[in-house]
Amino acid sequence: MTNTTTYQKLTWPLFLELIRLPAKAASLLPFLFGTLYAYYAFNEFNWLNSLIYFIGQMSIALFVTGFNNVQDYYKAKDLAYRDRDNILGREHLNPRRIMALMMFFLVLACAMGLLLVIRTNLILLFIGGLAILVAITYTAGPIPLSRMPLGEILSGTCEGFGTIFIAAYVNMTDQLPMAMFFHGWDVLISFNLAVILQLFVVGASFLLLDSGIMFADNICDLEQDQRNQRYTLPYYLGKRRALKAYPYVPGAALACVLISILIGWLPWLMIVIFGLIPLVIKHVRIFLAKQDKRTTFNTAIQNMLAIDTAQVVVLAIVNGYLIWRNGR
Description:
It comes from Furfurilactobacillus curtus. By secondary structure, the protein is mainly alpha-helical. 70% of the residues lie in helices and 4% in strands. The chain has helices at residues 12-18, 25-42, 47-75, 79-84, 87-90, 95-119, 123-137, 151-169, 193-220, 222-227, 233-237, 239-245, 248-263, 277-289, 298-327, and strands at residues 178-183, 186-191.
């Protein structure tokens, strides 16, 4: 007699839960902002490069979430978590098949990345390669990054600012922020520090809000993470100090927007975003009152969606006006 495991078929509803579809806005909104900002600030837009990057970025976003679920399933020390909370264990999904599907998304993302390198500059190979390395080692390897107090910083930097930077980069030809050139055996690397600083400051709100989602997630999962030997930033801060620090995340994001407006790197119309402050405060208070993955964690996502979507909409309106004015 042999013991065989009966796995359930991966249906569309399960797939959407596996990849956490609502969280994909954390990748889509920075992409839209970076693309729109390239036109607003630098008057450059390349629709084909943007389409290629969109496919690659969303593919890597799908890979990361699904891959993390598989790694969490295999590395779980708490069997109750593995069988009850992890979607693979709860829904009896075949981890090998899920991993194969995630590898398809990874290959697709790499293929799109190589195509963009050919169409732009070689240095994009190293930027994209570093981002993919972080995505893989986030939950894989002997010491996954997610089990260290680095998750918030890396997720925000890669998925928030990194997406904006590359989305703007693939549209720019006259003012490349970074470039690599070969002259015989000499390799020349150039940095446009002014453009890099500008992109970093205007993208800082996305970085912070994306990090805030991970921070809220780790606060909710603090006890569960300890049972699974994941020692995230809230573990080192302690829950009390983590909750004290949490309200400063959206506050700092809004401060970065204000600084960008005052410097002139964002349009004055962006000031309408500060009308969201009462909503942001409400969501923060709800989370501080109770930290629960199923009932209050979504307030962090709602704050990110509200602020990021508002910035994208304002830039789209301003760009539409600029196109109309230039076409007159």
